[in-house]
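Methods: example folding runs. The two proteins below were folded one after another, and each record is reproduced exactly as written to the output file, sequence line first and C-alpha cell line second.
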Amino acid sequence: MVSKSEQTGSPTVERRLPDWFKVKAPGGESFLEIRKKIKGASLNTVCEEAACPNIGECWDRGTATFMILGDTCTRACSYCNVKTGWPGTTDPAEPIRVASTVKQMELSYAVITSVDRDDLPDYGSGIFSETISQVRRTTPDCKIEVLIPDFEGELESLERVVNAGPHVLNHNIETTRRVFKKVRPRGNYDLSLELLKRVKEINPFMPSKSGMMVGLGETKAEILETMQDLRDVGTDLLTIGQYLRPSKRHHPIIRFYRPEEFKELELAGLEMGFKHVASGPLVRSSYHADDQHNAAIDKILDSANTQTKS
C-alpha cells in the first residue's frame, strides 16, 4: 500500500542518517597527496566545495573533479553548499593550472565543472573550452568529462564547449519538474532538457549525461517521469543519488531512499534505454565517471556499426 506521504511527496522530514551512509573518513596517502597538489595550484574542487561523501574513495583512487571559474556561484540553489555572490573576475591562467595538475596526477579521466557564472557574457564557456584544449594538449590520453551549467540557454556558449571536444557532456537536471522551482529558483526544467537535446544535435556521437538527487520531496512516479524526459532528449548516462543536507540552512531531507529502491531505479533506467545508470545512496554525478564513459562509447559504437551494416 502506498502511504499518503508517498502520494504527495511531502512526508515527515528525516534527519538521522541511516546505517548505509557510513563512509570511511578521508585521509589516505593518495588523498593527502592530491589535496596538496590541488592547493598548490590554487584550484578548487567540487569534491570539497560540495562536501561530497565520496571524497575519500575518489581521491584515494587518484581521481578528482575540478571546479573552474572560481568558488562563488551567481545562483543560490537551496541544496548546494557552494557559496553564492557576484564573483566578477576570471583567471585566464586557470586552464593551464588545471592541465598541469591533471598531468602531474597522471589522470586517465578528468571531470571539469564550474559554478554558475551568469555575470559573464559567455557564462564562462570560453574558460571551459580553453581548459579542455589545454588538458588535451598536455595529457592527450586523458578522457575529459565536463559538467556544465545551463548557460541560460545560450546556444553559442554550448556549441563552444561541445566543439572543444570533451569526451562526455554532463548537465544535471537535479530533481523532478514539480520540485524543481522550489530548489532551483533561477533554473528552468525545460531549458535543461533543451540543452541536453541540443548536445546531440551538435554532436550525435558525444555521450550526454545527467544526474538527479532524491529525497527532496518528489514521488517515485515523478522520478520515473523525469528519467523518461531525459531519455526522450537522447540522454545516454544517468546518475541518481540521495540528497544530503549540507547544513541547517539548506533544504531539509524529506526522506531517505533505501538501497533496494536505488536498485529498482537503476533497472528502470536501463529498461528505458540509458546506456549506463549509476544509482545508489552515495552516488554523485562524477562517481566512477570513467566506467560510465566506457559503457556509453561501447554501446554508441555498437549502434553505429549496426546502422552501417543495415
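Second run, written to the same file directly after the first:
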Amino acid sequence: MKGQRTERLIRTVCRFLTTPSRQISLTALSNDFGVSKTVISDDVVLIDSALTQEGLGGIQVDRGRTGGASFIPSMSENVKGQLFLEIKDLLSQEDRILPGGLIYYSDILFNPYYASRLGLIMATYFQATKPDIVMTTEVKGIPLGLFTAHALGVPLAVCRFRNRPSDGSAVAVHFPTKTGEVRAMYMGTKQLERGSRVLIVDDFMRGGSTAAGMLLVAKEFGAEVCGIGVFLASAEPEIKAVSDYTALFSLKSMGKSTPEVAF
C-alpha cells in the first residue's frame, strides 16, 4: 500500500510514539508501505530530527541483523523547565495545604496531561538504568508509575496495602513507618519475576518508609533495584529511610498561607 510520503511519515511517527522504547522493524515498515529500506531509513532520519527539535527524544537505530529502530523518550531541559514551572505554580497555591503538613496534588497526577509528561521525564532520568519493570504503590503512585513504564516500554507492578483475591497468591512484607507503626505490603507473585531489574516510582516521600517497603518487596523476589524516582519529596525529615533517590519536586516548607516548592 504505497502512499504519499507525508502520509507515510505521519503513520510511522504514530507507530513510534505509541510504542516508545520498543523496537520496530525497518523491514516490516518497508513491506507495509511498499518502499525500500533506504527510503524508510531516510524517513527515520527526518523523524529523529523533528522529535529532537520538539524536545521529546529521538530515534535509536540498530544497525545489526534485526535492522530495527526505537523511539527513546528524552525530554529536553527547555521543555522540562516549562512544565516544571507550570506544576510548581499549581503546587504553590494557597488551597493546597492540608492538615498534618501534607499537600494536595491528586489533581495533577490524575490528569493525563501532566502525568504523561511527568512519566516521560522520569523515564528520561532512568532510561540508562534499563529497568525490566516499574514498581509503585496504590493509589496515587499508579498514574506516574504507569506513564513512566509506558515511556520505558516495560510493565508496571503495583504493591498493595491489602491483598485482594483477584491478585492471586502474593508475597507480604512488613515495614516500619516513622511513627513506629508496622505496615504490611503485598505483591502478587505473577506481577514480578525473580531477578528483574526494578525501577521504583512513588508519588510522595516524607520519611521514605513506603519506598523502603518496596525495597523489601524487591529483595523478597530476588530483584535488583536500579533506581528510585519520586514526584514530590518533603525536605523534612532530612534523614530518610532511603538515601539514594531522585525527586522531581521538593516540598521545602509549609508556610502560613502557601507551600514552598522547588525543583
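Comment on the second run: The mean pLDDT is 93.
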